[in-house]
Amino acid sequence: MKQSRxxxxxxxxxxxxxxxxxxxxxxxxxxxxxxxxxxxxxxxLLDDARYLDxxxxxxxxxxxxxxxxxxxxxxxxxxxxxxxAALSQSITFVIAGLIARELGGNRHAQIIAAVAVAIxxxxxxxxxxxxxxxxxxxxxxxxxxLVIRLLKSNDARWWLGIGAVIGLGMMTKxxxxxxxxxxxxxxLLTPTRQHLKSKWLWSGVALSVLVFLPNMLWQIxxxxxxxxxxxxxxxxxxxxGRTENFLPDQFLVAVNPLTVPLALIGLAFYFxxxxxKNFRMIGWMAVVTFAIFxxxxxxxxxxxxxxPMLLTAGAVSFQRWIESLSNGRARVAxxxxxxxxxxxxxxxxLIALPxxxxxxxxxxxxxxxxxxxxxxxxxTELTQTVAEIxxxxxxxxxxxxxxxxxxxxxxxxxxxxxxxxxxxxAISGINSYWLRGYGEPPPETVVVVGMDFGFMTxxxxxxxxxxxxxxxxGILNEETRDHPNxxxxxxxxxxxxxFWKKFRYFG
Length: 507
Prior knowledge:
The chain is mostly helical. Helices cover 63% and strands 6% of the residues. It has a five-stranded mixed β-sheet with strand order 2-1-3-5-4.
């Protein structure tokens, strides 16, 4: 009886409730993640996962490693692979509640904080796609929690945990470096600078470098190709206008529009509240990191992981204000708060999660706001069409034929689904595909998908259209709209090794 009561106390504790809610959240996303298909970015990730290394052109190695675990456990299961994305955000949910707890929030504040973080568009969408953004988001929130533990306890040993998570973050997404700049600024601008004399701070620095060292060595071996990639992609984003809406995106993408007041209250908590001044380092981390992204002309969603630091503090400030009200007014205030959280979560969920059936009455609305879903459609049909063209080649020619893909979505789809049709691995000049090369012996005939016909005729002696990319829903996406034709090309005009040197590009 005593043991039963002990378990009940654990389950119904503040932390127990957060974990129960996170499990419900995880189950919900797992059950709803099977719609549509893999996103082009997921297809590239799954392909990289088959060639594990200490680095890849587009990202560090942790997310491909997680994808490899998914492949080993679940194969090419959409739900199985995306389970790890949903898991990252369920853990984030719990940590957000724990941050509110450390800031002095009661159970109500902890749950409001966790829900407010969960309904941000960035976090919500990362439940449904396994991308490096998902675990990057988790590391940022975990870092905020560890810094708060450091500030509360003044125990310098927390720097070891901070250093370890910084290393993991750098092994996930290089934008962790922006948060590191915020941590440095927050340390120098607050009494935390006393820790500069501590061996634990410098041990944490050494630990972060040690964790990140394998990727640094990989970058050296590959002439810092990831820096070249990042520069190229950033220049492209500026050129095509993806960075122009940085400030509006803060209120539409980085944070849920209905929780903006909570984030602003949280920012004020760190700088103007008598309790919050003890955690001012977090405020400086948020402000300095935001300013760097803005000055560097980053995309709007890059700042997404900053907002949990603010939303959690906002929830604590809201709780303290509620406690100053009469019971009746407090109930009204809670009712308004929860109506905003529920309606904000429902709206973002419809836009960010694969809940709306393709070509249903709501599809056009969702598709016009979130174009990522259309990029999850048609990959199996593309592979089938390529297979029909490849298998129609004469047997003697097919023995020396290859598949040349223009982007990583096409290459990833063919490499994921193509084995069932007897297809060889697709080759491409994009990102890490270029590093993997064209194979030996090089192909004499190539089925070309997703590339410009003019470039093909310049590169090969003969090219002929052999098919077209379609999907069963008739959805226009990058494949069906921008480069729908599939070609068979023969007779490369120069040796493959010379062609390949100039064929590298980023995307």
